[in-house]
Design a protein that fits this description.
The complex is a heterodimer of chains A (about 290) and B (about 650). With about 290 residues, chain A is α/β, with parallel strands linked by helices. Helix content of chain A is about 30%, strand content about 15%. The mean pLDDT of chain B is about 90. Chain B is of the alpha/beta class and about 650 residues long. The chains are: A alpha/beta (about 290), B alpha/beta (about 650).
Chain lengths: ~290, ~650
């Protein structure tokens, strides 16, 4: 029996679809049992969406009225909806626009930036932008989340294979540090450092003062960045027990780096501690609360 | 956590009229009946009374309750009471929950009568929050920690020695750690002390004893249970009550205490002369020297900083007690309790009143050395500059004390010291004038006033005045510009000026506090658990304070504080164990990433890193929750305040928000 799969793209960069292709030769094994019924990189896609879809992979966050409508339409046809990648799962980098709000953001992009010669906010033949960037689960029920920016191809493959064989896929409940080979030092960093200050190899980046989001981030990527000397930016979102990724990391540092982080203001705070999760972060809820008042 | 269905009993208290005046108590109780899992709700006049507690017990039996909520006062007041009540009825004490509807409701909204309804509503909200939380509570047990009968006392001044001897008398083993070569602390420098005119460490004869004796000597002579570690500092420290591990670092003395006969030959042949720190630079000593004539332990010590290692002392020593190649050594000890009695230092008023410029401006401590019959001048009062007797001694009080710029505290002993010295001078050299310039004379203590009157009768001049300026300063004397309290201005000539400088925390106290993981206040004094009710306890169980390390104190206070600390330290040691409930942090080791954040921030050293994961030492943990907050992987939870327990409480608190608006 073939499984009917659909893929869809919202506000995103198509990077998750590239990651899907990055599965490589193994993709052929998966595609044996699959009928790809709807996929925008392959064929021109429009509403109506074909019926009886078994699994839908939805990339990107919900940024416009059109995104919202398409997500709802897909939900109606699909039995199992997967939020595919960081934008869809947690709001992604797009979510950082929420620091300023939708309207203000659009105005800025179309009238203040150099590339926009006409200095006009488009109003005709374009879908209405939403006030806030939303993750997929804010709009429709989501059955499973594949995190990451982009998701790890091996992980996508194992999840799809599990689904095709009728099993329930799982994600690691631990944090990046659990997979990270770097040596942990049992002392707190003296001060925060930035990446151009070149970390010592083979030693925990956070212990050396580089802001690595590993502790609060869900494992499953094999700690690819930190093991190569790049601090984790937290693209896989919070781990199982973590209430809020950015807040957890901020708490961890607030306990020891008072002078260092007291200068952080909200935009920098959001971009550093909630780069991929701001739209679903408690920090954003606070700001929304302030706006309402 | 048990799987049994929660059956909650809610007991709302009127607290006489304290709560009932503002809150409609029966309405709150009626409201509670309809909340989820509530099996019984009722109200009493005084729930904390014997009768009220019996009612709780009866209803526990009658309604098979397994959770109990009392809506009354602050948990600080009666949580222990009701925990005991439910325990007596066979329920785990951590299944008890309190809603504070007195301090947070009736007292807060007492003034406006029309708030009656709103206050009642708030009381209902708090009860509802408690009910939601109660369903999530878990049963928590307790554990015991053995406490060995060994105490470490840090600092061998009056307080430390007093505590040590008392503990030894009670049968406990004591490690007395002192960083200087001899015992006695500041009191050993003083010669004679206020009021009794005796030596600082002198103990009067007690019942059945014939003669006075020396507190320091007693430590060595009478108590095989006291291990004295001189020239020693605490280098590393870890652990918790019953199991403190200390690494003591001992500097070499160069002389074997046991074989030395104190013949003094080594001192005579030593070619090196350096200023004696005991005499604050007024006298000299050799590189091998006796710290002070009555020093305990009674043996010379080699000052390896200045010693040239010429070896002459070792040559002349008839018993071969001198070892110039002695190395520092480390000793590891395990103790059940710790007493900190590190004493004080004296503020150095450099730049004030020509101190540091004019040699005739000295501190009270230096004057004590001059007046000490065994001091650098053999007890003669002489000007430092030319060794002539002074004609007019001036004393300035509160130098650095009660001064927001330096130390805002009253240093407690300066008035006594100045008067003691003034009386001594007047008694021995009646022709010498003594003038004390003071802000206030503060003499509170048994018989202190008598000494003050004596000073007045002997003709000591007391001027309530401020020294606005030192007008002239020469080797012969100083001219002071004085502004009296009544506004009158004059100039006064003195030829020896003595400054009563503030008491400060002992040098190195902050570093020691860091090593022991203890709190200090802004000025660096050790912080007590409670100023009035627990002045010798600290936030760390098993560590106690004695003497001037926590605040300026005089000898009498240091003495009875030493006794108090000994008595407190003896409590867990005499019981042999402490009981600790387990409402403490707990680590999920599968989630712990070993970042050591919790280990770093724990104020009680209650977390160890073992095998790459954090382990909570439940005996040492105080349940403050700092580790819970900072854990980036959220692998730590605090029992009794788990996330789900707090969230359900918040959920309960907010459950009615929409309804209230309608």
């Amino acid at each position: 029996m073939t499984v009917r799969i659909a893929t869809m793209g919202m506000a995103g960069c198509s990077g998750c679809h590239i990651a899907l292709l990055d599965i490589g030769v193994k993709l052929l094994d998966i595609l044996k049992d699959v009928e790809l019924v709807y996929s925008y990189p392959l064929v021109d896609t429009k509403n109506p969406i074909p019926p009886n879809i078994d699994v839908a992979l939805i990339e990107g966050s919900i940024r416009t009225e059109h995104d919202k409508e398409m997500a709802e339409a897909m939900r109606k046809q699909a039995k199992f909806v997967i939020a595919f990648g960081a934008c869809s799962a947690h709001g992604g980098v797009n979510g950082l626009a929420n620091v300023f709000g939708g309207k203000q953001g659009v105005e800025y992009v179309y009238t203040k930036t150099i590339l926009m010669a006409q200095k006009l906010v488009p109003s005709e033949h374009v879908p209405q932008i939403l006030t806030n960037d939303l993750r997929l689960s804010d709009v429709v029920k989501v059955d499973f989340v594949i995190p990451g920016c982009p998701p790890n191809p091996d992980e996508i493959a194992s999840i799809l294979t599990a689904l095709l064989s009728g099993e329930t896929p799982t994600l690691s409940s631990k944090s990046i540090c659990d997979e990270c080979p770097l040596e942990r030092l049992t002392e707190a960093p003296a001060k925060l450092r930035r990446i151009h200050e070149i970390p010592e190899p083979d030693k925990c980046l956070l212990s050396q003062g580089f802001l690595c989001m590993g502790p609060a981030t869900r494992a499953g990527c094999n700690a690819e960045c930190p093991r190569r000397g790049m601090p984790c930016t937290g693209c896989r979102g919070p781990s199982e027990t973590v209430w809020d990724q950015g807040v957890a990391m901020l708490d961890a540092l607030a306990a020891m780096e008072e002078d260092e982080i007291s200068d952080f203001k909200l935009p920098r705070l959001a971009g550093t501690f909630a780069r991929y999760t701001y739209a679903s972060s408690k920090l954003d809820n606070l700001r929304k609360g302030v706006q309402k008042e | 956590m048990t799987t049994e269905e929660p059956r909650i009993g809610v007991f709302v208290c009127k607290c006489g009229t304290n709560i009932a005046k503002v809150v409609d108590v029966p309405a709150v109780s009626e409201y509670a009946k309809d909340l989820p899992n509530v099996a019984y709700a009722g109200w009493q006049l005084f729930t904390c009374s014997e009768e009220g507690q019996n009612i709780i017990k009866d209803h526990i039996k009658k309604h098979k309750l397994n959770r109990v909520i009392v809506a009354s006062c602050s948990p600080k007041l009666h949580e222990p009471t009701f925990r005991r009540t439910v325990m007596e009825a066979g329920i785990n004490p951590f299944y008890f929950e309190m809603a504070n509807i007195r301090e947070q409701v009736s007292w807060a909204h007492m003034k406006q009568k029309e708030e009656y309804n709103e206050a009642t509503q708030k009381a209902k909200d708090l009860v509802r929050a408690a009910v939601f939380r109660a369903s999530q509570l878990e049963s928590i047990g307790s554990t015991t920690q053995e406490v060995p009968p060994v105490c470490m006392v840090i600092g061998a001044g009056i307080a430390g020695i007093t505590a040590s001897t008392l503990l030894a008398d009670e049968g406990y083993e004591v490690h007395l750690v002192e960083r200087s070569p001899a015992l006695g602390g500041k009191a050993a420098q003083l010669g004679f002390v206020f009021m009794t005119d005796t030596c600082g460490v002198c103990v009067p004869p007690r019942h059945g004893e014939m003669a006075r004796k020396c507190l320091s000597k007693r430590v060595l002579r009478h108590d095989p249970k006291i291990h004295v570690h001189t020239l020693t500092e605490v280098k590393q420290f870890s652990g918790y009550i019953g199991n403190f591990q200390a690494k003591l670092h001992t500097q070499p003395r160069g002389v074997d205490i046991d074989t030395c006969t104190l013949c003094g030959k080594c001192i005579d042949v030593c070619p090196v002369k350096v200023p004696h720190e005991l005499d604050l630079g007024l006298g000299n000593r050799r590189a091998i020297y006796l710290p002070y004539p009555q020093a305990v332990p009674r043996s010379p010590v080699v000052d390896f900083k200045h010693c040239t290692r010429c070896g002459k002392c070792a040559e002349v020593c008839p018993v071969g007690a001198i070892h110039l190649d002695e190395a520092p050594k480390d000793t590891d000890i395990t103790v059940g309790t710790v007493i900190v009695s590190t004493g004080f230092d004296v503020f150095q008023p450099i730049g004030l009143y020509a101190y540091g410029e004019n040699p005739n401006v000295i501190l009270q401590l230096a004057l004590a050395r001059l007046l000490d019959p065994l001091g650098p001048t053999d007890g003669q009062l002489l000007r430092v500059s030319d060794k002539n007797p002074p004609k007019h001694v001036g004393m300035i009080q509160c130098v650095g004390s009660r001064d927001p710029e330096y130390y805002s505290h009253c240093s407690r002993i300066c008035c006594q010291v100045a008067i003691k010295h003034a009386v001594y001078i007047k008694e021995h050299w009646p022709d010498t004038d003594v003038t004390i310039f003071y802000k206030d004379i503060r003499l509170q203590g048994k018989q202190y006033e008598r000494y003050y009157l004596k000073a007045q009768q002997l003709g000591v001049n007391f001027h309530r005045a401020e020294i606005t300026e030192v007008k002239e300063t020469t080797k012969q004397g100083l001219t002071l510009a004085v502004e009296h309290h009544n506004g009158a201005k004059e100039t006064v000539d003195v030829d020896l000026l003595v400054l009563s400088a503030a008491m400060t925390p002992a040098e190195g106290a902050k570093e020691l506090a860091h090593t022991l993981n203890m709190e200090v206040d802004l000025k660096g004094f050790f912080r007590e658990y409670h100023l009035k009710l627990a002045p010798v306890d600290t936030t760390t169980d098993g560590i106690y304070l004695a003497g001037a390390c926590s605040s300026p104190r005089d000898i009498a206070e240091a003495s009875f504080m030493g006794a108090a600390a000994a008595s407190h330290a003896a409590i867990p040691m005499s019981k042999g164990e402490v009981k600790v409930d387990l409402a403490k942090s707990i680590v999920d080791e599968t989630l712990c990433i070993g970042c050591a954040n919790c280990y770093t921030v724990c104020p009680y050293s209650a977390i160890n890193m073992e095998g790459g994961v954090a382990k909570v030492v439940e005996v040492a943990c105080k349940g403050c929750g700092i580790c819970v907050v900072e854990c980036p992987a959220e692998a730590i939870q605090l029992r009794h305040y788990r996330d789900k327990q707090i969230y359900s409480q918040i959920e309960g608190l907010l459950a009615n928000v929409g309804a209230a608006k309608k």
